[in-house]
Specification:
The protein is an alpha/beta fold and 320 residues long. The chain folds into 2 domains: 4-177, 3-Layer(aba) Sandwich (Rossmann fold); 198-316, CBS-domain. It has 15 helices and 12 strands. It has helices spanning 4-26, 29-40, 52-66, 76-79, 106-114, 129-133, 155-174, 179-184, 189-194, 198-201, 217-227, 247-252, 262-265, 279-289, 311-316, and strands at residues 45-49, 71-73, 92-96, 119-123, 136-139, 210-212, 231-235, 241-246, 267-268, 272-273, 293-297, 305-310. The strands form 3 sheets. Strands 2-1-3-4-5 form a 5-stranded parallel sheet, with helices on both faces. It has a 4-stranded mixed sheet with strand order 6-7-8-9. Helix 1 packs across helix 7 (155-174) and helix 3 (52-66) runs parallel beside helix 7 (155-174). It starts with a helix and ends with a helix. The relative contact order is 0.10. The model has no long low-confidence stretch (mean pLDDT 90).
């Protein structure tokens, strides 16, 4: 059976994948030069382009901004009507045009030359109007487009998008940008949940179930019941975590609860987690050990009780 649509899809994807392999081998020392300019800028990366290149430019700006490099998209046509004022001499401009001849870029390019603003370009024609003006040109190999007629931006836009990702991730790695840093820029949705820290979700202060080791078990039982976590932390006079009492501990010691103190029933050296750990890690610890909560201790102050995170806290924000 013939599958003409499926055949076309595979041809397009195969062509674009092959183009990316070619692009990777095509990169040279100019990539390092561009990274040096981007790394050393005191301001923002202004990304610009028109048409399909403009759409790719918006995505590159967004990726840079979300990975620790301040960036924004400026539309070249709007730049000619006042938005040039968004660009300062502390910035660097990254201009995108496959042909390098987009007339809409002319005023913005001239502005960078007038005020000595570094100009980087992504184009497939080094000798183009854009290529000749750039301080550093990142050249795309000229491979045509997936449509076969050269009129539908496809291979060229895919390569440009990948090159933008390469720039952003190289900068991110140079800055040792961590998942925790990434979370600061992505507090919402599933990604924000996955990058939440324990300190974002943990219970603190009066919400914590806490007793000292020398209190009668009757008081410990009251604390467990009033706080609703099914567990209580047993601490010393300096609020260092000595152990925990769970409903399971109570069941195992039922016969000798009368007259017992919290320290007689507690499980010493319980599992804990640091406040700056990812909540995803806390959830993994709880699942692996078949427990419903972890007490939080600050590694900077050994065994000092800081909070409690419950499995429901993780589920509530969308983890699991």
């Amino acid at each position: 059976m013939s599958h003409p649509f499926l055949d076309t899809a595979r041809r397009v994807i195969t062509a674009e994948a092959a183009a990316l392999t070619t692009l990777a081998g095509h990169l040279d020392a100019r990539f390092d030069a561009a990274l040096t300019v981007l790394r050393d800028t005191r301001g923002r990366v202004i990304v610009t382009g028109i048409g399909k290149s403009g759409h790719i430019a918006r995505k590159i700006a967004a990726t840079l901004a979300s990975t620790g490099t301040p960036a924004q998209f400026v539309h070249p046509a709007e730049a000619s009507h006042g938005d040039l004022g968004m660009i300062t001499q502390a910035d660097v401009v990254l201009a995108i045009s496959n042909s390098g001849e987009a007339p809409e870029l002319a005023n913005l390019v001239a502005y960078t030359r007038r005020f000595a603003i570094p100009l980087l370009g992504i184009t497939s024609v080094e000798g183009s109007a854009l290529g000749r003006q750039c301080d550093v040109v990142l050249l795309l190999p000229r491979l045509g487009e997936a449509c076969g007629t050269g009129v539908v931006p496809s291979i060229s836009t895919t390569m440009t998008l990948a090159l933008g990702d390469a720039l952003a991730i190289a900068l991110m790695e140079h800055r040792a940008f961590t998942p925790e840093n990434f979370r600061d820029f992505h507090p919402g949705g599933k990604l924000g949940a996955e990058l939440s820290r324990v300190s974002d979700l943990m219970h603190v202060g009066d919400a914590l179930p806490v007793v000292q080791g020398d209190v009668p078990m009757a008081q410990a039982l009251k604390e467990i019941g009033s706080k609703g976590f099914g567990v209580v932390a047993v601490v010393d006079e300096d609020r260092r975590l000595c152990g925990i009492i769970t409903n399971g501990d109570i069941g195992r010691h039922m016969a000798r609860l009368e007259g017992a103190r919290a320290s007689d029933v507690m499980t010493p050296k319980p599992r804990t987690i640091a406040p700056d750990a990812l909540a995803e890690k806390a959830l993994g610890e709880m699942n692996a050990n078949k427990i419903t909560c972890l007490f939080v201790v600050d590694p900077g102050a050994p065994d000092q009780l800081a909070g409690l995170i419950h499995i429901h806290d993780c589920l509530r924000v969308g983890l699991g």
